[in-house]
Structure formats: C-alpha cells, structure tokens
Amino acid sequence: MNKEVNMHNLVKPESDGLPDSNLARDIGYVPMKDGTRIAYISYHSKAGHHPTVFLYDPYTASASPFSLAKPYLEAGYNFVGANFPATGCSEGVIESWVDGFDHKVGLYGAEVVEWIAGSLGATAMWG
Fold first, then answer.
1. Whole-prediction pTM
2. Of 5, 8, 34, 112, which has the highest C-beta tally within 10 A?
C-alpha cells in the first residue's frame, strides 16, 4: 500500500480550532497506483478505531473546514475529504466528462477508500 505525502502532519489542535488534543488534522496527497496524487484532508482521533465519513467531490472536499467535520467527530467518526482527479488540488487529467464523470473518478475513489482503511485505523463501517 502506498503512503500518503503529507504537506503538514498533526497540526497543533489550538491552531486549527480543534477542541480536543486527541484530534488531529492531516492535509496531503494520496498516491494512486498510476502515480496520480489525490488531495485530501482528514480530521481524526489519534487513538482507537473509528468508522469514517468520506466526502469525495470536485474542488472543495480536500479543503473541508473543521466546522463541517465537527458533528461527525463528536459522534465518534473520523472524517476524510478528497477531491476528484484533475479538480481542486488533485492531479490528473479528465479525458471525458460523460454524464458528468470520468471512469477515473470511481477508480481513484476506491483507491482512496483503501488508503483510509489502512491509514486511519478505520473500522469496516462507512458513511
């Protein structure tokens, strides 16, 4: 399994408005099998296994503010936002937007889900 490339890892909670020192925010890229990097942000507990809410969309998911993740964190979930390929800060080329999506969107989304399961200690529960 590929490791992500972190732009900055485990930002101090007080600098991000995270109320609990047991929470962390990571921002970086998840490398795909073909070398394309998908931008992500995660808010997660530093301890234990938790189900994960995954937001995957063009442009804004990898910049999700803490206020969006907070209700999920308070309910015991981790939160990960990632951008489609070739949108937001994600790398890649979209060859065709047939019905609004390129086949790579689903393939890369599945690889990000695999990365989440191996990186955050996520449980088999998904939202």
1. 0.79
2. 112
